[in-house]
Design goal:
With about 170 residues, the protein is of the alpha/beta class. It has one domain: Rossmann fold (3-Layer(aba) Sandwich), CATH 3.40.50. The chain is about 30% helix and about 20% strand. The protein has four helices and seven strands; from the N terminus they run βαββαββαβαβ. It has a five-stranded mixed β-sheet with strand order 3-1-4-6-5, with helices on one face. Strands 2-7 form a two-stranded antiparallel sheet. The longest helix is centred in the C-terminal third of the chain and has 20 residues, at about 135-155.
Length: about 170
């Protein structure tokens, strides 16, 4: 049975300047625009902040990270990663001054509060070209990626409703 009052953090990470590397941030932006979430759910643009994300990560009980993931699948393949599989995440790799997500979670563990974590990721089509728009391949898969993230939120005890269009 899932606790209804657990704090759930949906963290979109990546560098929006490198095409599909910014998919996590872009997905969180879409979720914020299209849904209202229960009080126990926080959505956050984590960008490439690295260890500066420790405070919000340590404050939650369940962490859902949305990121571009190199999993050797076809571009647009969606992954659910936990445990050792977290190392496949591209999080923070394009920043020369930040540690990656796995190191950040290790630091949280050392300090005594590492939340249960899952990465919902997607195989990028292009993460090297400097452009702020997602590739057509990833753009077409956004509804499926969004559904996977919303399923994780629901599994953790969160809920959401579609915002009314004006």
């Amino acid at each position: 049975m899932v606790e209804i009052d657990r704090n759930i953090l949906v963290l979109g990470v990546g560098n929006i300047l490198f095409t599909d590397e910014g998919v996590g941030v872009r997905l969180v932006e879409r979720l914020q625009a299209e849904y209202d979430f229960s009080e126990n759910v926080t959505l956050m643009d984590g960008g490439t902040l690295g260890t500066r994300l420790m405070d919000p990560i340590m404050a939650c009980k369940y962490l859902v990270v949305v990121d571009a993931v190199l999993g050797d699948g076809a571009p647009g393949s969606i992954y659910r990663l936990t445990g050792d599989d977290l190392r496949k995440s591209l999080a923070f790799k394009n920043s020369l001054h930040q540690t990656d997500l796995v190191d950040t979670l290790i630091y949280c563990d050392i300090l005594g509060n590492r939340p249960e974590a899952v990465i919902v990721g997607i195989e990028p089509h292009d993460y090297k070209t400097m452009a702020v728009d997602l590739s057509d391949t990833i753009q077409a898969r956004m509804p499926d990626l969004m559904a996977a993230v919303l399923a994780e939120v629901a599994k953790a005890g969160g809920s959401c409703t579609l915002k009314m269009k004006e």
